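Figure S4 source data
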Amino acid sequence: MFKVAQILDEFSIIINAGFTQGIEKGDVFQVYAPGTSVKSPDGLSSIQWDNVKAEVVAVEVQERLAMCKNRDTYCKRKIDATEALETLKEPLAVILGLLSPEFSHRPLKIDPSQATPIEFSDKTIRVGDNVRKIVNPIEDAKKKHQLGKIAMGD
C-alpha cells in the first residue's frame, strides 16, 4: 500500500511509489481513508466503502517517489458564453473547448425508505493517508499498444 509521503503545496503531493514499483507518468491514484462498512443484501458479510479524498495523477516519477497533482482540473480562462455564441456556432465552440456542456446524472428509481446515505465530510489530505493506483483499462490498452509499436520498430 502506498502513502502520502509529503505535501508540497495545495497543488502537489509526493507519494512513496516510483518507477521501481512500476509507476509511470500519467498513472492515476486515489488518496483515501478507510470508510464505513456496507452490509451485503443477505446480511452475512460486509464490505468497506472508503472515503476517497482525491484522485491524483503522477506528473513526475523518480525511483521510489512520484509527484502527483489533482486529476480534477478546471479552465482558468473564462469566456462569456454569449460572446462565444456570437462569434462561433455552439458545436464548434464545444469542440474547441470554449464552452463546456454541463452533464448531470439522471435519478435512479429507488425505494426512498431504503436509502441510507454515506457522508464523508473530511476530504483533507494528510501525510500518511493511504494511496492506491486506479486501473484504467483504456489508458492501459493505449500504453500496451504504444509499447507494441515500439517493440515492432514502428
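Figure S5 source data
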Amino acid sequence: MRPHDLEILEFPRVLEAIAASARSTAGREAVRALRPDPAERDGRLDLLDELIALAREAGRPPTSEVPLLGPILAAAAPEGAALEARQLADVRELLRAAAAVGAGLDPRPPPVPRRPPAARARPPGG
C-alpha cells in the first residue's frame, strides 16, 4: 500500500486513536510503527483471536507502564559502558512487568517455594 493511500484512509489518525489506548509508552510507539502488510495479515488476525480468547478466559493480562528498552541497551552497547542507576531501575521494571505478564499467561499454578536449607535441617537427635 502506498503512503498516499494510507493518508487518504486516515491511517495515521486510526493508529493515534489506538495508541491512545495503549498502557505504556512502548505500546504506543509499537502501535504507531504498525504498517499494513498483507503477508502478516493472517498471522496478526490469528494472534488477535488468541488474545481475545485468553482475555475472555483469564481476564486482561497484568500489564503496566514499561520503559523503552532500546535507548537503554544502546547506551550500554559501547564496550566498557555502564548503565546509570535510573536505567538499571528501568530494566528491573521491564523485567518485573514481563514476569507478571508471563505469570498471567501461564495456566500452571505457581511453584511451591522451597524451604531454605536451614529450615530443612533436622535438629540434633531428631
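The mean pLDDT is 80. The first helix runs from residue 3 to 8.
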